[in-house]
Amino acid sequence: MERLRTVPILRKEDLPALQGKRWPLGGWASWDRVRRLFRSPGPIYEPEGPGPDYWGCAPVLHAAGFRAGDVVLNSFSYHLTPAAWMVEGGLSAIGAVAIPGGVGNTEMQARAASELGATGYTGTPSFLAALLERADELGIVLRFEVALVTAEPLPQALRDRFEARGIRTQQAYGTADVGMVAYECPYKRGMHLLDRCLVEILDPHTHEPVRPGEVGEVVVTLLDPTYPLLRLATGDLSALWEEPCTCGRTAPRMQGVLGRVAEAVKVRGTFVYPAQVRAVAARHVEVRRYQFVVRRTGDRDELVARLEAAGPPELAERFAQSVREVTGLRAQVELVPEGTLQDGAPVLVDERRWD
Ligand SMILES: [Zn+2]
Description:
30% strand; alpha/beta
């Protein structure tokens, strides 16, 4: 790890330029090993190498409850991007049967899953919700027992809906560049890191490691003979827990994706992330809605927390204290009347104008 820290960071957003400069794919790919080529937004090209389960999805599916002989509807896109093929590799390695559903054709996919007796689902949580809804409308019986969902946040309410229907639902984290990185165990408190890659959580600006539990950027190293990537800065924010998990696995857990580095707003020289804003609000259950606003008065940035809350009078003071603990910044706290803030509005807004 010490020697790895001397290797420069490879920023994901620099990949399109680097891949264009040197062939193959930045000069890192071993051409004789490449079996498929994918294109992700950027454009960033990703190679798939030989062998079963190239992307490391089998242990992820196994932990989610998928087993040999299961019939699984795989509704990731099979075109250009690699997610469907990551799942395919894993399903094939554990001996499960895939229905390559792809994207769209909701009714046709629901009928096929029903008639072929699918017990597993892989894809986005929103498509699973759409599929179940359509099936209910048409009176189609779906018998999903396990679902591996990724590529989107999974709101707790949606997970509860799936689980109320008897679908054990677990998430995983990966990137198109390196494949699977982390997965949930049955306890669903964070995602265990797979040992196929090395994960660092770094301060996105100094590139120094953050303390355990602190938010930083996910930086992944994959020592793969087809396409090795050293210290790829993903732009995703997360935190790492090192405490042991109830399931007995000793691998550290990451806290899911807490946001994107690009969403950060610089306030008086310090970066603030939406994830930090949410972490502050989570400490104060009496706050119903909240929004942090960055304004400029004269030459000074001001961080203002606007709260809709039915809290005690000292709430403002305690909230400001939490902001300080989490972000290191002083904030003004404004209590606003109920109905001022919109549901679904961004939690961190930069209102400064520089023109
Ligand atoms: Zn666990």
